[in-house]
Specification:
By secondary structure, this protein is mainly alpha-helical. The protein has one domain. The protein is 61% helix and 3% strand. It is built from 15 helices and five strands. The longest helix is centred in the first third of the chain and has 27 residues. It starts with 9 loop residues before the first helix and ends in an 11-residue tail after the last strand. 34% of the residues are buried.
Length: 354
């Protein structure tokens, strides 16, 4: 007696695969859900251990400037001050996700205050950053809240002028020295494309507060002295922040996909790096190196990210990106859709040009 073997239905196999992915995604989201609970005690402790030393360093730098001490002493102090300003930006960032305090209003108030400190309008940046989270790794939705990235095909098809502009922008000396300060000092003074009334108002209010701060500092400290303190602190912090944001989504095996096959969970786990840093640096950048967790669940407060990593095994499967390995990202400039990886300009030199 012959036995009939049923042939699998391709559509059923597809449905099963989709259901499996959905189940895995739901299990991961459920596993990290308990860490998305802001805590006033932890939040205020972070504010005290960051704002107090930051303001203390500012007071010391002002004293040194007014007493005529050598300027290099002030420049030395600007380095730890900039590190603390990066940490303050992480508090601002958490507020945009409603993650720092349990209260939405408290997040908004602190978001505006820290936004003034980091020269960034709270609600306008919040809008573009939410778009970034909803489209990270989607090749068909680039251009909002991300680093300008072209595919190999797009670069080869571009005009000579566009290629030159792209090469200039992606040059490490430009991207990590000129662009960060230009972004925070100039670009952030204007609302983003498509901004609504609320976002435009946040830009106006932040600009007004910054102008008021500059006026007060000019009348008390002197404009020149103020700029000699503020600009180095802001430049070092902005450059550090730019590097952190860059390396979180610009590494060789990062995830990019066309919209029809793009997956939100994969963009988090494979398109956002686990940047393993020494403890001191991890503290200064507010655990933002655990970026794969942040993109899986954006409203986990920075002070819960490490515990989340320690207690959820699935998050530990992501390969760690060390400082040494991350330096390779400086020379990875184009997304190769065929090889599914970021490649350098040099890697395409032998390809035909249009």
């Amino acid at each position: 007696m012959s036995q009939q073997i049923a042939c699998p239905d391709p559509s059923s196999a597809t449905d099963f695969a989709f259901a499996t992915v959905q189940t895995a995604r739901e299990e991961l989201i459920q596993a990290v859900a308990k860490y998305a609970r802001p805590d006033y005690q932890k939040a205020f402790w972070q504010l005290s251990n960051t704002l107090i030393p930051y303001l203390g360093l500012w007071a010391l730098m002002i004293y040194l400037m007014l007493q005529g001490y050598p300027y290099w002493l002030t420049l030395l102090l600007s380095i730890p001050a900039a590190g603390l300003l990066v940490r303050i930006f992480i508090f601002f960032h958490d507020c945009t996700h409603g993650a720092f305090f349990p209260s939405r209003r408290a997040n908004r108030v602190l978001g505006y205050i820290t936004g003034i400190m980091v020269f960034t309008p709270f609600e306008d940046w919040q809008r573009t950053h939410v778009i970034h989270h909803s489209a990270a790794g989607d090749l068909d939705r680039r251009g909002m809240g991300d680093v300008w990235t072209l595919t190999v095909a797009e670069y080869l098809a571009a005009s000579r002028l566009k290629r030159l502009a792209y090469r200039l922008f992606r040059n490490p000396l430009v991207l990590f020295s000129i662009v960060p300060l230009f972004l925070f000092v100039i670009i952030n003074r204007f609302s983003s494309a498509g901004a609504g009334k609320r976002e435009r108002r946040s830009v106006v209010l932040t600009n007004a507060a910054i102008i008021g701060l500059i006026i007060v500092m000019s009348l008390t400290l002197g404009l020149k002295n103020y700029l000699l303190i503020q600009l180095p602190v802001l430049w070092i912090a902005a450059t550090t922040g730019m590097w952190m944001f860059y390396v979180q989504h610009q590494y060789e095996d990062v995830y990019w996909a066309r919209h029809e096959s793009w997956d939100l969970t994969r963009s988090g786990m494979e398109g956002s790096s686990y940047y393993k840093l020494p403890k001191v640096l991890q503290w200064l950048v507010g655990n933002i190196g655990l970026h794969h967790i942040h993109h899986v669940r954006a409203n986990i407060p920075n002070y819960n990210l490490q515990r989340c990593l320690n207690e959820v095994p699935a998050l530990q499967t992501v390969p760690a990106l060390t400082i040494r390995k991350s330096l390779k990202s400086l020379w990875l400039n184009l997304w190769d859709e065929q090889r599914q990886k970021l490649v350098s300009f040099r890697a395409i030199n032998r390809l035909p040009r249009h």
